[in-house]
């Protein structure tokens, strides 16, 4: 049982790492490092001077572009964390419900199903907490 948990944890970590690496690799298709691509300008605070050139490209030597790129990156990462954790948690809740219905009153099986649903609830709480990270960063940097 302990070995299965270790394999499950390693698998989840590997999947999360692959999403993170893929997100960072595809986050900016600009080959030079003079700026970043802003995905949604409407999420950034209006107090920052995010001067855009070439469509949605923000160059580092224009206004507050470094801060705009930082906040945009934080929003993109927390969006991915939220989506992945909510998807995994939803699947865990469904699997826990299946285990509950097929347990036939066996205390060990119902205990396993209950633990799975509790872990899913913790995953949902972490996903919701990830939505609070960008406003906290905005407050810290004063934007």
Secondary structure blueprint with pairings:
Elements: H1 2-26, E1 35-37, E2 52-53, E3 57-59, H2 65-101, H3 107-130, H4 133-141
Antiparallel strand pairs: 1-3, 2-3
Helix pairs in contact: 1-2, 2-3, 2-4
What tags apply to this protein structure?
143 residues; mainly alpha; three-stranded antiparallel β-sheet
Structure characterization notes:
The chain is mainly alpha-helical and 143 residues long. It has one domain. It is built from four helices and three strands, in the order H-E-E-E-H-H-H. A three-stranded antiparallel β-sheet has the order 1-3-2, with helices on one face. Helix 2 packs antiparallel against helix 3. The chain is elongated. The mean pLDDT is 79.
Number of helices: 4
Task: Give the rounded overall mean pLDDT.
Answer: 79
**What is the domain tally?**
1
Helix-strand topology string: HEEEHHH
> How helical, in percent, are the residues?
55-70%
Gross morphology: elongated
Nearest-angstrom radius of gyration? 20 Å
**What percentage of the residues does DSSP assign to strands (E)?**
5-15%
* Main β-sheet description: 3 strands, antiparallel
The largest sheet has its strands arranged as 1-3-2
Task: Determine the N-to-C terminus distance.
Answer: 49 Å
Unreliable stretches (pLDDT < 50, length at least 5) are: none
Total number of β-strand segments? Answer: 3
- Secondary structural class: mainly alpha
């Amino acid at each position: 049982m302990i070995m299965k948990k270790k394999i499950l944890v390693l698998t989840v970590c590997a999947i999360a790492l692959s999403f993170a690496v893929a997100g960072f690799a595809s986050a900016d298709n600009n080959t030079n490092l003079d700026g970043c691509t802003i995905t949604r300008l409407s999420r950034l605070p209006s107090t920052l001077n995010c001067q855009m050139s070439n469509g949605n490209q923000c160059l580092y030597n224009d206004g507050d572009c470094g801060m705009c790129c930082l906040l945009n990156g934080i929003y993109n990462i927390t969006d991915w964390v939220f989506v992945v954790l909510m998807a995994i948690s939803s699947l865990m809740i469904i699997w826990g419900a299946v285990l509950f219905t097929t347990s036939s009153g066996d205390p060990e099986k119902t205990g396993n199903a209950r633990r799975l649903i509790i872990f899913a609830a913790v995953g949902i709480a972490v996903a919701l907490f990830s939505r609070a990270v960008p406003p906290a960063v905005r407050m810290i940097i004063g934007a």
